[in-house]
Known about the structure:
The complex is a heterodimer.
Chain A: H1 5-27, H2 43-53, H3 56-74, H4 77-100, H5 105-128, H6 134-161
Chain B: H1 6-32, E1 39-44, E2 47-53, E3 58-64, E4 70-77, E5 80-86, H2 92-95, E6 105-108, E7 113-118
Antiparallel strand pairs in B: 1-2, 1-7, 3-4, 4-5, 6-7
Amino acid sequence: MKYKPKLVAFVxxxxxxxxxxxxxxxxxxxxxxSIPGIKMGLPNIIILFLLYxxxxxxxxxxxxxxxxxxxxxxxNMMAFLYSIAGGILSLLIMILxxxxxxxxxxxxxxxxxxxxxxxxxxxxxxxxxxxxxxxxLIILILTGTISGILIGxxxxxxxxxxxxxxxxx
Amino acid sequence: xxxxxxxxIRNDIILVLSLLLIASIGLFYLFxxxxxxxxxxxxxxxxxxxxxxxxKDIAKDIISGKNNEHHNLLIIKNGKVxxxxxxxxxxxxxxxxxxFRDGESIVxxxxxxxxxxxxxxKDNIVDAVA
Lengths: 169, 130
């Protein structure tokens, strides 16, 4: 494969963007302080955009680099395992739904957000060997759906407004 | 870029509604078929009064008030908790159905008595990253 500096730079910029969004998300006060782990999923805006404009491989590369880097910077091994489980499941579902072409960006984003939460819960069940997370999963499905709608709308705006010319060599 | 057609929007709505349906079934399950607790905690005016095991049958007269004038007779029997009698004016706590699920409580407002069921072993997971 030919080495493409512009492609590498673009992956870098996108990864940086997702990381900044993840950082902003941490700075925002939690909506429900009593329930940990509820997040908007702002980085998913970028992933969604890339999935539609640059294809599944590009989106997956950025997403996985982001998770690895953020875990190294701010998290620990446990956080990494939770994130990677959620991230990969979310990517798989979004790529699948994108390919099926029967959902708009909102549907893809909602499914991705909920899949992210389910991935994390599955990992938690695996690691802690309990099935005690039922109540948590239900709350996360609710919040994941709502934030997925918002993220999907934002993503649709970006996909519509950012011109194809920024990708030109 | 292909514009979102009516069909894809309809599919989106179906997806969102079915997820909300799943969540509401789950919430129903939580509130109706929730896990049984194992600990009974009594507080008076926000201050800890005592903690009892749900599996051991006891009858406890909870005495409160400045001159010990308030009485609430708490019964733990067959893994359920109820208020047998109380000298509060409204007697709502006595009418409350027996509680046994995690998170349920009986409150006697006039005497400021709160009886709560809890589960001791609870895991807390925090996702710091994604």
